[in-house]
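Thanks for the sequence, V.! I ran Iron-binding zinc finger CDGSH type right away. Repeating your input here for the record:
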Amino acid sequence: MEPKIAQKSPFEVDLTEGVTVYWCACGRSATQPFCDGTHQGSEFTPIEFTPIKTGKHYLCGCKHTINRPMCDGTHLTL
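Predicted structure:
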């Protein structure tokens, strides 16, 4: 099963060093780019991410990045 493309650009989010977040891998969460549990009962699992520095991070919106959860530009090929 392919993930749903939430958007064809990264999500710019402010994250805090050492504070773990869960990136939505299925693309169906209403709280993009973060998991809200919508994946329950599917083959998808959210990706745990703990930033090593505070500041802006660019999390994948297309859900096809190889560098999960970070945007790697894959959305440009979709």
